[in-house]
Design goal:
By secondary structure, this protein is an alpha/beta fold. It contains ten helices and eight strands. The protein has two domains: 208 residues, Metal-dependent hydrolases (TIM Barrel, Alpha-Beta Barrel), CATH 3.20.20; 56 residues, DNA polymerase, domain 1 (Orthogonal Bundle), CATH 1.10.150. Strands 1, 2, 3, 4, 5, 6, 7 and 8 form an eight-stranded mixed beta sheet that branches. Bound molecules: adenosine monophosphate, zinc ion and fe (iii) ion (2 copies). The site of one fe (iii) ion has 4 residues, from loops.
Length: 308
């Protein structure tokens, strides 16, 4: 397989570039799934994880494009969870997307996202901002997972803020005046549900700057490992070098797989270009081994990585 000329960051011979966390416009990314896969190809990514928030809606279009583009696609979901009172994002890789308890929980989360929108709009209107839910819905198109980034994009379009980050800082973040909580799945239960669906779980950006993740210390991660957690996302833009080193140490002690990724959102998140962080091929192999075991133990029809 030859690479297109002009790739900004071509793989070196024998080096596989693996980016296990990205978003399409089925949630709060800005590219359709197929465009995201093509972009990964241009960026010299060999293995891409599509992990939209709380939905598998982009899987099929991404898988079809992956086969055409020569990118291996790992189908996943970034599930909105709660642990010890804190919001935690769980990357669920290669589960059977038809497993009823998983479908039921994702539906509940998506319903919570939709229900939050009018409440957020009310808050913003109370702050004197002229915005209505229809504007957000039009901008989000037919995305399965509505999120604060879509509200942020409308605020940008209206000139209220310059970008998504400013919208979160001034209005939508947890301390902001337009913040509204929503339903999230119990983390330990969800790790079990993912395993029962034949998939594997990785905690996303456990110590990200904007989150309060005190509960995800060594003891917390040990408890999650007992519940069936396969790995932790260490190499992420929200983790500085000291954070990565500390997390890597905990992961080694607990024998957790270590992943790295861009958490790319298209134009929606600055500084998260595809491939800005990657997963070591040996760690990826471990994750696939665990997925194969989970799949066999579950008896479910699970998706395999798809591609060239
Ligand atoms: P929601 O899914 O509605 O709870 O919104 C959370 C999502 O917004 C996260 O998953 C990120 O994709 C995005 N996000 C969170 N904080 C920021 C920020 N400061 N700037 C831009 N995007 C953000
Ligand atoms: Zn997002
Ligand atoms: Fe996340
Ligand atoms: Fe993400």
């Amino acid at each position: 397989m030859t690479r297109a000329e002009g790739d900004p960051r071509p793989s070196r011979l024998g080096r596989v570039r693996i980016d296990l966390h990205s978003h399409s416009d089925r949630s709060d990314g800005t590219q359709p799934p197929a465009a995201l896969v093509r972009r990964a190809r241009e960026r010299g990514i060999d293995v891409l994880g599509l992990t939209d928030h709380d939905t598998t809606e982009g899987w099929q279009a991404a898988a079809e494009q992956a086969t055409r583009s020569g990118v291996t696609l790992v189908r996943g979901i970034e599930v909105s969870c709660r642990f010890a009172g804190y919001g935690v994002h769980l990357l669920a890789y290669l589960p059977d997307p038809t497993y009823p308890p998983l479908v039921a929980e994702l539906t509940r989360i998506l319903d919570g996202r939709s229900a939050r929108l009018p409440a957020t709009i009310d808050r913003l209107r109370g702050l004197g901002i002229d915005i209505d839910a229809g504007e957000v819905e039009r901008l989000a198109g037919d995305a399965a997972a509505l999120g604060r980034p879509h509200v942020a994009d409308v605020l940008v379009a209206k000139g209220v803020v310059a970008d998504r980050s400013e919208a979160f800082e001034r209005y939508l973040g947890p301390q902001g005046p337009a913040y509204v909580n929503r339903y999230a799945a119990d983390l330990v239960t969800m790790i079990g549900t993912v395993a029962a669906a034949g998939g594997v779980s990785v905690v996303a950006h456990p110590w990200a700057r904007r989150h309060n993740h005190d509960a995800l210390d060594a003891a917390g991660l040990a408890r999650l490992k007992q519940a069936g957690l396969a790995g932790v996302e260490v190499d992420h833009e929200d983790h500085d070098e000291a954070t990565r080193t500390a997390l890597r140490g905990i992961a080694a002690g607990l024998d957790l797989v270590v992943t790295g990724s861009s958490d790319h959102h298209g134009a929606g998140k600055i500084g998260h270009e595809l491939g800005c962080n990657t997963t070591d091929p040996g760690q990826y192999e471990r994750l696939l081994d665990l997925a194969a075991k989970a799949s066999a133990a579950s008896g479910r029809a699970t998706p395999l990585p798809v591609g060239p």
